[in-house]
User: Fold these one by one.
Assistant:
Number 1:
Amino acid sequence: MRRETLHAWLLLLPAAVLLASFTHIPAIETVVNSFFSTARGMRPSHFVGLGNYRNLIADPTFWQAMRNNLLYAAITIPLSMGIALAMALLVRGRIGGRGFLRMAFFTPTVLPLIAVANIWIFFYTPGFGLLNQIGALFGLPNMNFLGQGATALYAVAAVSVWKEAGFFMIFYLAALQTIPPSLIEAARLEGASSWHVFRRVTLPLIMPTTLFISVNAVINAFRLVDQVFVMTQGGPDNASTLLFYYIYQVGFQFWDTAYAATLTVVMLAILVAIAIGQFFLLDRKVHYR
Amino acid sequence: MADLTLDGVRKSFGETPVLQALDLAVPDGGFCVVVGPSGCGKSTLLRLVAGLETADAGRILIGGRDVTRLPPKARSAAMVFQNYALLPHLSVARNIAFGMEIRGTPRADIAARVADTARILRLEAQLDRKPRQLSGGQRQRVAMGRAIVRDPQVFLFDEPLSNLDAQLRAEMRAEIKALHARLGATALYVTHDQIEAMTMGDILVVLNGGRVEQIGPPEEIYRRPASTFVARFIGAPPMNLIPSTTAGSLAAGAPARGETLGIRPEHLKLAPGAGVEATARRIEPHGADTFIQATTAEGVDLTIRLPAGNGVRAGDQLPLLAPPAHLHHFGADGRRIA
Ligand SMILES: Nc1ncnc2c1ncn2[C@@H]1O[C@H](COP(=O)(O)OP(=O)(O)OP(=O)(O)O)[C@@H](O)[C@H]1O
Ligand SMILES: [Mg+2]
């Protein structure tokens, strides 16, 4: 018994060491750092208690990033999930070219993000970009989607929806395929319309997948950085700055590592709270087989 | 209540014909059992009647009404699926109420009908449970509850008992028959279990490769199988089929007719001094009866069914005789001659 326990620990050790040194210890260090000041030149780091957190509450850029991120999440999560489900329902049916459609919908997920962002930058380019050219056909004025505070965030969000929907579709497609056809046939015999079948059979049965996807979507919405980096750099005037991008700026452009740690702690707290909330809220509606 | 008529119904999937010109008439309140080997088109037949598939040709009538082109919900047919098709996220009560909720039946009516159905099927204590918390037999009853609560003109059963163990199956056979007698609706019941086929139906349809081999009351089909296929398929152990040329003196006294002789295992007699000698090879006790596998000098394998306690042992020589009255004669095409 004791030997077995020892063996078990020995076998777990490599994984535990890796996990601890690259995940747990940095996480704890981050929390610790958030209570210290950033070392600068002559002045070494010293304990400042909640000082960083007080600064954070008074930091307008943080609040702007927070608002942007909430808006971004509110747009991208429902849209990408809704489109994913719609596409999955579409390519599940017996339509011609189904294989091609599945591939087409999934392509955005396979493309490297830099390539995706560049394609969309071309779409958005003022003057000769695709969107403006189409707009011109209808006599619309020239728009600088990425360069305008009013549209920059939405332009970034649109790319995310385009990219995530194809990825989530795969999960929905897998979930739809686990529904026994006889359940749907039984419902049809009872006189259920397509809407009834969707609402009362399909949707409840794919709830576990919906929960899984929504947790992922939330996490993705709060950890987006590369796209902002390539497309707008958070501009203009922080109009498209998201939390994670702001952390990057503070940490690696302003080198204020302690404040970056503080922001990270706050963001993690938000993510954990949302994830727990989702599980408790949706769990009652989710039926695991 | 209504009768069910199929008139020259055909169905193929792509190039493969699955049902070929099927005619069938089930009278009002009749219980028709369709039996046949796997893949012969039994489920397809039910799905055509239910409206889950559309016939390529022919007509389907329920109570004289042509439903061939009608959608499932307009047909007044309820189906019990082999895997029950219960919605796993809904309670027993909601599963039974599912169709009524969709059709917008008033709540009070739904509650009353669900309570009624639960009482008939002895499911009152389980109404709030989810399907996964039920036993196989209870799930089966919920599936039936969902069918009877609709008060349909025709009940369709697709191998409803095949997921149950032998004892429960026997119970449910009796229960379904009792329910049928009580509701008086017309039933079409598909199975590949020949005990169900023999015991449950007023009318038995033997299907083979999408064609009807024989239709009739079960005893009639047992007594006078129309083909070698039916002869082998109905009855356990199956009928002995012997090429006429190798029968020898087994059927002494009967005029030689047709290509194949048939004799049921229980009709073979031990007749010292008459018939043919066969060597018993295997003894299979089945409680009340014993099945004996034997081989004649001509190399014909026979199964004999004798009451237990007959004292036959493996290796014994058995004098076997087939009484002419119990012989079946089949022609070269496998059809019955007499
Ligand atoms: N949707 C379909 N597409 C193509 N072929 C099908 C389809 N459904 C059934 N078939 C074919 O039709 C034939 C009859 O199928 P069916 O399900 O009616 O058989 P069955 O008698 O119910 O068999 P089992 O006893 O195994 O349930 C089979 O050969 C099957 O492969
Ligand atoms: Mg079948």
Number 2:
Amino acid sequence: MGEANRSALNEFWVNLKSVPSQIYRAMFRGGAPVSDRTRSSFVFGNVFLHLHSVRTHLWSLRWSATMGLGIITTAAFLITLVTGVLLMFYYKPYPDVAYQSIKDIHFIVPTGRFMRNIHRWAANVMVVAVLLHMARAFYTASYRKPREFNWFIGWGLLVTTLALSFTGYLLPWDQLAYWAITIGANIAQSPREITDAMGITQFFDIGALQREVLLGSDKVGEESLIRFYLLHVMILPIVMAMLMAVHFWRIRKDGGLAKPVDVDARVKADAQEHYPVFTEEPKKTYQLAAVVKGRTPAVGSGPENTVPSMPHLFYAELGVLMFTTLICLVLAFVSDAPLKELANPLVPENPAKAPWYFLGLQEIVSFSAFMGGIGIPMLCWIGLGLIPFLDKETEGTGEWFGGPGGAKLVGWSMIYGFATSIAVEAFAIRFGWLREWFPDIPQLVITLVNPGTVITVLYAGFSIWALKRFNSTRAGALALFTCFLCGFIVLTVIGTYFRGPNWEFFWSPSDWSAH
Amino acid sequence: MTTKPTEKRSRFEPEPMPRRDFLGLAALASMAAAFFVSMFGMLKLPKAAVSASPAKKFSVALPDALPVGEAFVPPGRSVAVFRDGEGVFAISTVCTHLGCIVKPNANGFECPCHGSGFSKDGSVTKGPAPKPLPWLKVSKGGSGFVIDEEATVKTGTKV
Amino acid sequence: MKKNKYLLLISSLGVLALLVAAAISENFLKEWHAIQGQARTQEGPIDVKLRQIVNPDLRESGPLRDLPRRNGTRGTGPFGS
Ligand code: HEM
Ligand code: FES
């Protein structure tokens, strides 16, 4: 009789009724995250979450360890992603039409202005956060073995972030955008300053080639706009997403974030707030599974002072995500994204300024296009990338301003870094530079000796002094990094607030005469 | 399938990777070569072979009453045309620093972007511009004179 | 963890508040609501419609701003030109 009872129709009916609960069980296959084991499987059973390790060290959860800066950057990226896709519904990448579509978005499209403001502000937040995050990774000496590769990936992320921001800057096709990109593109051509001086431009015009590939034409026009658009909405976001995935996964594979050697002694106090971290000792390790060779500290003793990432880490991450959203919304609320007149290739903006994070470079560019646009940025960029390979000491890893010299050296470097850059700039602004004194001076001399290079040499000298004084590569790195950070700030502030029409010095933008 | 008895190995010492695996190496090398060559093909695309832009050669009709030393800027062009006793000449108004459009003034030209200054014949007097403003080729014809923005001539050439 | 929960709570509430504020300004406070509210013909007020016909002489930008040009009545473009 049992056979007859089990009719397929009946079974279908029962299955149909239980669909919701079945779907629920399929989604939460590991069961509710209530025990150590189910919490772990919650993390490693999910393709996105498993970029995290299943347990997080209490040290890494301290606000002071990371200040959440990496997550702020990630959050800002996600916000630009969402708002950017919304803007794409109306944006048309063709000269003049582009401007009108932005105007429509700004004035007509429902919530268009708000979305545009959020997009713009999140992009700026992202640039600031990525710079600060890099500084945090540097000052806590987190780039050291085994994290050299992740520093490398971060270095790529920095460039991708700036490139995303820069390509987005052209899209509104207003005067601001047009002239900022014209200047930016001409900087790509500035190796000509060198090839011209050497008289080899006819044979080897790398400058023009770079510019041409970037713009797709000999000036900023429709070809350039579509290229920038392609880079901005497709190529760079994909590159960014891939690099981010590697960046996060490396953190997990590098054993979590960098920590001081005596970290366990230090987090004892924190540990009191949390329930006992490990309830069962692991019986097996990866080594016994013959997957990994090497030291396995976890055999027989629980990984002390770690807590399950679910939910401890996720509360932190969600908190930072919403905090970043809040910041972007507040900024979008109080300040509208700029939109000037339609781009006019015949009449430059006066002053014509690049995006703010390039104004420090533009300040040096106003002395030498090559040094400001290519020479010094390349030097900084390559120097940054090589840090983990040039400083291989171990003292102070995972600690703020760790290593010989410490916070005191950083303090002195700040004073020196601010003072020298302000002094050199003040001199150049007050007394002019070589061409004003010797009108016939060869261009090569100006390219080699200008405020930008002078500041760079002064910084390098100080760093060598610190390196010798403390007999430590870390001290040299601390001094140099701090100096360049200060120089960047000084030049950016001068370029932003103190340069007016004709790139002349003004004490305040309100003194800019009408032009 | 029968397995050939081999020397005993543990999981920790798997069989070594063969040092000279010609087949494998040849396969990998040809893949790398194909990849490399295709890279060239792909990189060729973004560099435009022709770029559509307005003609660089154009004719201008100079106003009869153009005072000596005063610049005439043909509409829509980045060129300043002058006439003096010796003839007509044209100077590009694209700054040699970073390509902003310079403005003619009483002493020559000035650039709004980073403050380069140029004298009346285009030579640099001030600022970061690395080279003088180029003189452009002018010839008689059209509705007066024909200017070729792509052909530069020696400073001082007048028609 | 408590600190982080507070951060999440307060930030989320802040975001919510701002979203409400944005919704209010979007739906009631934009300049054009006032302008639209004043505009009326003999038949009464003018509704907001998807196809707004825009007078080219006003150099007004609107969704169909280049409509007159397509019709051949070609006025000045909305942005001079
Ligand atoms: C789009 C840009 C970036 C994103 C989204 C990002 C994201 C993150 C996140 C979420 C972390 C975890 C720790 C934290 O929150 O601070 C992290 C760690 C790290 N990041 Fe980044 N990052 C970016 C760029 C960079 C840059 C520019 C560098 C340096 C050149 C860098 C170097 C590192 C290093 C070395 C770590 C490991 C730190 C440690 O072990 O303590 N990252 N990153
Ligand atoms: S572009 Fe003319 S001075 Fe820089």
